């Protein structure tokens, strides 16, 4: 579908993969309005990229082997562009070079790739060569453009229908029905501190994801280590199985909040953190402030929701987001 009015901005490390850049240019330019990250002063290029991201209908994020030029914060400008783009309404399509084709992989590049994969899901392509990357990119971008066109048409139709309905309503001058009286919940049921909770019906939608107990997930975390009276910051990763995560959630009270889930993960990571510290810092005697990476926590939580392992717990007396373990998972855990 040709749509030259559809603006796509491409974020990447320029000249790192000339064959891929040329192939994307050749395939996309005849179809869409394409802009690219600049070559030159990183700060000026970053400002240009943000303006283009703001103006674009979609962002194409390409990650090769190079993590990119570091900013004063230590995070690369490429990474900063991604963080900026993911918080905008425009969708992101990601092309990530397969780790099997890389010569060396830096920790920062690996973390960025993991983050993009977790956040973009179906709009991520792991490619081995330029031809494969371009084919998959065209497929995803075409789907985005078609969705954009149908959404735009639907919005226009709704506006026209709404305007017509409004005209008919004003012409008929139908009197508005009297507003129903405000409901007054008795104090004894609404505010009494010892009243038993009355949860609303729980959502029982069918799971959209199948989680296997023995499958593992890699989580990033940070901690403080103490050695010779000095405090050291450490970052590490740990593999957790979904079975371990189920065991952990089964010990949480009902209902539990996201903060409680985070604290449970932090407690679970204390022992692995101490083992890592003892290997790298033999004189270290303690670890504290274990913190699971917030992005990893959100990703795991989404998997638990889509897998039907945890379901919302609605309490009329609380405005917080609360959760409980699905009854089916409770039975599986007890078994």
From TrEMBL:
Pfam families: DUF4062. It comes from the Bacteria. Residues 173-205 are annotated as: Disordered. Residues 43-85 form the DUF4062 domain. Residues 173-186 have a biased composition (Low complexity). This is DUF4062 domain-containing protein. It comes from Faucicola atlantae. The lineage of its organism: Bacteria, Pseudomonadati, Pseudomonadota, Gammaproteobacteria, Moraxellales.
